Amino acid sequence: MHSWDPRIEGMPKAELEKVQYRLLKTLVYRLYSFSDFYHARMKEAKVHPDDIKTLADIRLLPFMYKSDLRDNYPDKLFCAPQNDLVRYHVSSGTTGKPTVVGYTQKDLDLWTTSLARALTSCGIGKGDVIQVSYGYGLFTGGLGLHYGAERIGATVLPTSVGNTERQIELMQDLKATAIACTPSYLIHIGEAAERMGVSIQKDTHLRSAIIGAEPWSETMRTRIYETMGVRAYDIYGTSEISGPMFSECSEQKGIHIWGDIAIPEIIDPETGEPLPPGEHGELVMTVLQKEALPMIRYRIGDLTQIFDEPCPCGRTHPRIRRISGRVDDMLIIRGINVFPSAVEHAILSIPELSGHFMIEVDRKGSLDDMLVRVEMAPEALSDKINDLINIKRKVEHTLKNALNVAVQVDLSEPGSLPRFEGKAKRVIDRRVF
Amino acid sequence: MQGEYIIKQISIFSENKPGRLAAIAEALEKSNVNIYAFSIAEANSFGVVRALVDKPDDARSVLEKLGFAVQFTDVIAVRMKDQPGGLHEVAEILGDAGINIEYAYAYSGKEAAVLILRVSQAGEAISKIQAAGGSLLRESDLG
To answer: What is the DSSP string of A209-227?
Structure first.
């Protein structure tokens, strides 16, 4: 086994659990003492740091929710002063307020370390050229993988997302051996290369792909291997826990969650009760050493299962299976999380619209295409087409700002979109993964 | 009296998909509304149908009952010579006066060709056209 940190990654389970317990205990004491939010939450749950006597006692601790981040926008949950922060990342929230994550230098170091282990476990290292085709900027994917790849001594080609023909030229000319991007973008690259008369398999050096941030399947893995000759590895993370952090190893048998960095749990999404290993349920994450925005039992909302037996690769840390779905109605559009509630919030802020809307999601080629049908308010109608085009542009612009992803907008006639009694079904998702 | 030359156009917002114009036309036929002139402006997924009709109020109420979004818009109608240069004559008057034409469409009227104009300043357009010797139609002249 080639590891970034053989001592930690192959640490006997009992010893790893001791490390986890020590880190958890430290975290709980620190937050009980220094975080008003966690102090109040623990008081409310009638749990004191002294009650945490074993690792399993983590279940006594209260959950943290995405809504807590929204309610404390932008930085009220931060446990580090601004002058200790070295970066912010921002993702769209469930309503108007985005989710802001701050990082201290140590937070970035741990995130990068986690990725250094992950990339090394996929067989990537010094000598590799990694094309980072995740978006750079407020989204965590681009910069996260960038730092991780630099840490292992690989050469980074920071192409970000888009401008696909140029990406393919650079991939050829600079002999990229690995790529990090969303699964749909990888397939898009494959199709674009074919149109350019370039065979990824024969005309490039690409042999592995670190793909994630959106759902994909074993069928896609096989298709990627057969059409491009590229071995694809699943990577997992969300901005709240730092960003993409954990991946499969070269065995491709589940995602290793580094136990000294995070404790994963699976709970019943209805009751909140912990489920035994192997059971399918909602993933809850505690990030053990985060300074700026600590996370105890954060309910990410992804569905999966944990399996604890050691991996054939020799690593002892728990693994999770590929994410199978969501507990809520969150959509993932070209790797970006989109909550229908955020769409609604944006639409209600536009006086030219009635407030009714529908979301339709399709795959155009290999890329996600999200269409938002909005209804005009009768008083905003105009006989001049330019006025209508301007309203459409305004809606597109408002949604792009709110969601961090470009969507199509269609203006519909007043009264033409469906009205719902009870729970609204505003999303039609026709994608097949 | 400029007001008598302001004509009520019905403007109908419509999604750009098969059958919408047929639905509008059928509704007008059933309520015995005659269409003098009409045009369609389109942008990708939606459009605006604009029409001059003999009974605008009836047309509006029947279309609204069907769920269409309908507005009245003030336009003016100018007689043109039905020969080369006819349009030039009218357009030049407005151009010289610095009045912008938002949109226009035309039909071949009984006595002369008619140009329907949507302009930003209808009152001023009427004065300029009259001052230049042009001839405008009242709503009652349309048929």
So the answer is: EEEESS---HHHHHHHHHH
